[in-house]
Task: structure prediction
Amino acid sequence: MKNQQLKLPNGSNKLLLHSCCAPCSGSIMEQLCNANIDYTVFFYNPNIHPKREYELRKNENIAFAQKHGVPFIDADYDSDEWFARAKGLEFEPERGKRCTMCFDMRLERTALFAHENGFAVFATSLGISRWKDLNQVNTCGKNAAAHYPDLIFWDNNWRKGGGSQRMIEISKAEEFYQQEYCGCIYSLRDSNEYRRQKGLETIKIGTKFYGRSAEK
Result:
């Protein structure tokens, strides 16, 4: 990937990267390392359910950050607050109002940490997935940054320049855990309902990994 020209906006020298999981952030982290950008990973994802799934995603992200010598901030799980905010949105479709609420919550918390800890720029790995609405993610990021006059949300399109493909390549090479739903209890419910309608097995947490055969 050609990322030597990757530079933070406004001449900033460090970045706070909100990460949703190791597979989504892997190629972004590689790009940032290759561009010699000083960054810290911030893991705040209270939407992920159940707790076992949350721990799988978080611990894998911690291990990958440690492997590359990148600082990692393990934020609170805070799932009770997430469920309180999701009340009334339980049957919203993917990319609907519930997702906006979820992005808002996570990126507002990231923006607060950035503001309180000397980061002038923050970004997120959420938009690299083709399952996400990039405009929705970026709007939430910009709204979160707007609370602080000294803060910028970096809306770099991480999918471009082979970013999405590199995400898969790294995931396979690292044998990352391959989550099969977005993360929340409602996406798990809807994903399993779709599978049942298609006559497929429901999701089994902690069993599927990139780059591994079914027998491995």
